[in-house]
Each structure stands twice: as C-alpha cells, then as structure tokens.
Amino acid sequence: MAIEKLSDSFKYHKITNIECQEKAEYEQSGRPSKLTKPNKITYRVTGELETKESVIEAEKTQAGRFILATNVIDKNELSNENVLKEYKAQQSTERGFRFLKDPLFFTSSVFVKNPSRVSAIAMIMGLSLLVYTLAQRKLRQELESSGNQVKNQVKKLTNRPTMRWIFQVFQAVHLVSVNGEKLASNLTSEHRKILDNLGKGCGKYYLII
Question: Residue 159's closest CA among 143, 145, 175?
C-alpha cells in the first residue's frame, strides 16, 4: 500500500513489478530454532520505475504549441524563425520592468495626477531602465572578458551579477567631507573591482581617478 501510494504521487512516472519480501528479526544472534518467535517482522519492497508516456505526450501537446501573430506577413522581411526569436527576446526586456515594483527604488511612492506628468514619469522610468540594462550588460561583458568574478547575494563568485545587487553592495559607500577634502568612505577592494569593470566614467563618482 505504501509503494502504491508513492507511485500515485508521481506525475510522469509510475512504479511497476512491485514485490514485497518479508524478513524476520530475532533478539538473539545465531540461527534460531523453528520454535523461536521473531522479535519483529520487517518488509523490503522493490519495484521498477517507468514513465507515463501518455501523460508526457499530453503535456507536450499542450505546452509545445502556441500561437504568435504579427502584421508583417512578408516572410522575406520576417521569417517564422525570427518571429519566435523576437518573441523570446522580449522576456529580457519585460524582466527589466520588475524594478518599477521593487521597494528598493521607491517607485511606488511617486504619485502624479496630471497626464503630462504621468508621461514624464514614464519617460524617466524608461530611461532609467535603459541605463540599468546597459550598466548590467557592460559589467557582465567586462567580467566575462577579463575572467573576473564578484560575490553575489549568497557570497558565491559569479560573472553575471544583477545591477539590483550591485546597487545594494554600494549602499554602504558614502561621500564625506573632512576639512574641505572629499572622501569616499567604506570603499572596499570589492567595490573597486566592480568600478574597474564598469569603467572610468563610474569610478570618478567615487573619487577614483
């Protein structure tokens, strides 16, 4: 019953050729006599794992086909393969707009009623996303070409960090003024490595000339 319950819990597999072997266990070591009663009985269940082909085929039929529509009907201008390629490429852009809802950027705290101001905010957010995406692309390309890596959220090295995490890393860096001289406090070697890969244009804001 236990192995059948386990088999029913699998979505794409099932257990077949189920066999159950009974084994008696005794308190005393050695060979027991016929009159000795076992201390307990244990069971060993074996079986074979098989795929549910009908379920898998049904999933393929449902998930493997979808409709893409375009008003460009000239295949020489836009082939079916390019339609699919452009569709998949949209996902990277759509993921970028998640930062608009991220509490880290305080976007939800901005309220405007005038339609022209709404348009202005949308334009600013679009430009912000462009800068965000270009900075992330620049950093990842430089890290990959140089063979360098930076630590991610779980302290593991990666050459594909997100700019959201990079912003958080730089939250502890502050610009201070001591006797009229400006200094960047809490600037570590990890920060400098990131700035080196982002370029001199970013380094100057942290007084790295």
Answer: 143
